[in-house]
Design goal:
The protein is globular, with a radius of gyration of 14 Å. By secondary structure, the protein is an alpha+beta fold. A hairpin with a 4-residue loop joins strand 1 and strand 2 (about 30-35). Helix 1 packs across helix 2 (about 45-60). It has 2 helices and 2 strands. The mean pLDDT is about 90. It has helices at about 1-20, 45-60, and strands at about 20-25, 30-35. It has a two-stranded antiparallel sheet with strand order 1-2.
Length: about 80
């Protein structure tokens, strides 16, 4: 769950900094990979993404987990519908 939540924070930070969407994620034992729709992300943007992610984390926002029926999904503000 920590990797999954962290991935959401990182994906939102990447979206805010460069308007790049996350298209794939790999959760591994040794590392997590987040793939975007950008052909490349300039190295100078890495620290900006990190700064945005750290700002989100420092807000200490609550994490809510919801089990949602498929017919109720549209009630939630989500970037893309679940499969």
């Amino acid at each position: 769950m920590q990797q999954h939540t962290g991935q959401h924070i990182l994906s939102q930070s990447i979206l805010r900094v460069g308007n790049w969407n996350t298209v794939s994620v790999h959760f591994g034992e040794d590392y997590t990979a987040v793939e975007t729709d950008a052909s490349s992300i300039p190295a100078r943007k890495y620290s900006e993404v990190e700064k945005v992610a750290n700002h989100i984390i420092q807000q200490n926002l609550p994490v809510k987990i919801s089990w949602v029926n498929p017919e109720d999904v549209e009630r939630f503000h989500i970037r893309r519908p679940p499969p």
